[in-house]
Amino acid sequence: MEKSKNTNYIRYIITLIVLITLFVILILLNIKLGSVDVSVKDIIDILFHGSGNETNYNILWKVRLPRMMASIILGGALALSGFLLQTFFNNPIAGPYVLGISSGSKMMVALVMIAVLSRYHYVNSAALIIAAFAGAMLSMGFVLIISRKVNSVSMLIVCGVMIGYICSAITDIMITFADDANIVNLHNWSLGSFSGTSWKNVGVMASVVLPTSLIVFLMSKPIGAYQLGENYAKNMGINIKLFRIMLVLLSSFLCACVTAFAGPISFVGIAVPHLVKSFLKTSKPLIVTPICFLGGSVFCLGCDLIARTLFAPVELSVSTVSSIFGVPIVIYIMLKKRVH
């Protein structure tokens, strides 16, 4: 027993060290690399002395740093959202993108953007988050209704994908009839990207995601009890109905914040929690929650770096890159679990 605990502790420390190392390396690469390569000397002068080339100064402070912070915050939010959904449905394939929740958020945000941008030139961040949350709850409502009618995990996934297609189709119709001036912005946003992030956006997303993530961490004990079964959780004094509502609200809120600022980012919510639990050999929320957030940040930092630099100055969407890495993981999970 003691040997098993020591092994788990060592595995946890190794995973943490690897993720922190990757985190630091990717931060440095995200700062330095891009369509314009900034020298190490300029980076040091700009970050620590406030001097250096004016063009490079603007590139770092107004473009790369806020974008990097967005990928860290929103990547962690996506991974946590996926972990909560997997806990709620007791299903390793559950995630905000696969279940159509991201698409529901995208639909409502597109509707608000088209309605507001046709009259004004600015959309309030709070309005986008509220719209995204409403869309997430709408899609989640349909998924919950379907989950009560079907016992098959694969059928639930198929229905979630169908909901996503319907929401995406409605979004495409709205974009078709949008003003020409708004179509480019809507199209780029709908593909999923951290580009165009400002420090004001970073402040808003941090004020939403970080407190929500802290609440998830503080709920580690009831989440752990729920993972052992509803009857066990009831015996531990947990109000199951209220607890399930909290899981839905928290996961939808995290997903909504991501969609509002970056559009739908695919497969992060499935791939990262699965990889974290596989490396740690445990699903204990007290351990998994912080590592999951860090893992989501690392995953999105890497995907965004590839999206920006692979074909620079042409930029890929983050969702395209995350799909390339995420889809094989999802296929592996389905084959391993033999989902029926």
UniProtKB/TrEMBL annotation:
One of its GO terms (cellular component) is plasma membrane. The chain crosses the membrane at residues 12-31, 68-85, 97-120, 126-146, 153-178, 198-220, 241-267, 287-307, 314-335. It is a multi-pass membrane protein. Pfam families: FecCD. Its main location: membrane. GO terms for molecular function: transmembrane transporter activity. This is Iron ABC transporter permease. It comes from Paratissierella segnis.
